């Protein structure tokens, strides 16, 4: 008995060894190092002096950091709820279809999700090109003249948000479709027998039963969009990045363009705290949902 | 009896819904129009990539190329480091997929089925890494990789991308869901733990492993931020990073740019089209709902 117990532990040690090695080296160690670095004035590469809380004091008075937090929040507001609403609408439409036709239509909606962000960027940069972009045929008449979306600050975030919804919505659509499929058919049949209208069916059956999936989509999107970087970075290339800065981009800029590793780590710690706070909130929401 | 009840029900339903058929047709049409609009950017990129650079910037809307040509593709392949990028992307994505999935299966199995000290701590580490934004660690990943001289190497690109906690969580939940009798029976037959994992448990549902592998591959191929930082040398870039790095060298040549974009997206788009069902499964599994 004792031998088999020891054997089990040995097997476990072998099985988790690669995992412990990688996560220790690539997750635990960098996390601790990040916190330590945030108390120093180190450059990106090389040692720095311990400066206590100076970086954190600087953070609270930093206007660009304020802009980055605001832009990130604004971006979250523009994507999370609108994106989830659009995904639900599309899922409702797609769920009415059957067989190969459904797969075809679903593929059209889902395909953007599997594309690399740089491909998404190139496609939309071309569509919205000031001189030759096909989208200017729509923008021109509405705005009066062709518009460079990425150099017009008020349009930058909404523009990136629309493209992000286009890019990432496939994920939520799939979750909603799975949720819709789990609603018992009998409920709809009974409603049809009772002569319920489409709207009644939606508000009385579909919406209450799909609500848990809606909460799931909202929280997943929230955590995801807080970490926005790629799109904003790519579309702001060559522009006034200080005005359209988001949090991860500020880490990137401080570390790799301003060569201040210590302060970049401080911004990273701030992002860490914010995302973890929301994640714990998400975890609680999901637990409440699971308990019900 | 139930079958009869079913038919009568559907005929009732059919009669009732007849007046609504026009509504159904309109909804169907609306769905198709929305799908067409949604897909249009991808279609437009494909169409542009088959035009000549002159035709691409001609005024007016030419939905299809007048004389489809592969010149844009040939130009990109011959005049950029695209073949290298393809090689780099393939090496790093395949390595990330194989290592991350293998590591996750082993760890998920151990945490689910074995009792050992540190098990709870390990599980909490996984949940923590699931919550934490990996993007915040870029600075320290860079410092670590610089200190071991792994910047601009495949290994340097691969290592930080191996943090994929969702795969471990999905595997653990899968192993948790298996009946204990399987394990007991196999142990009775004298199977050891490794045989149990690789000969009994994993083969019971290759679907999960395939699904996780495909989604990990797509994720690795599409990664932008870390490969962008880790590979400064143009020959070491991945496709995802490379196609924007050469944007300026191509100049005002949108057919070429779109050809580059199509080539970069092609492998993942094909992976999705071929393994559509597995991709769907992986996504619903990772979100923790039944598909």
UniProtKB/TrEMBL annotation, chain A:
It comes from the Bacteria. CDD domains: TM_PBP2. The keyword Cell membrane applies. The keyword Transmembrane applies. Keywords: Cell membrane, Membrane, Transmembrane, Transmembrane helix, Transport. Its main location: membrane. This is Sugar ABC transporter permease.
From TrEMBL, chain B:
GO terms for cellular component: plasma membrane. Residues 86-275 form the ABC transmembrane type-1 domain. It is a multi-pass membrane protein. InterPro entries: MetI-like (IPR000515), MetI-like_sf (IPR035906). The chain crosses the membrane at residues 20-44, 84-109, 121-143, 155-175, 196-221, 253-275. Pfam families: BPD_transp_1. Keywords: Cell membrane, Membrane, Transmembrane, Transmembrane helix, Transport. GO terms for biological process: transmembrane transport. It is found in: Cell membrane. It comes from the Bacteria. Belongs to the binding-protein-dependent transport system permease family. This is Carbohydrate ABC transporter permease. It comes from Devosia nanyangense. The lineage of its organism: Bacteria, Pseudomonadati, Pseudomonadota, Alphaproteobacteria, Hyphomicrobiales.
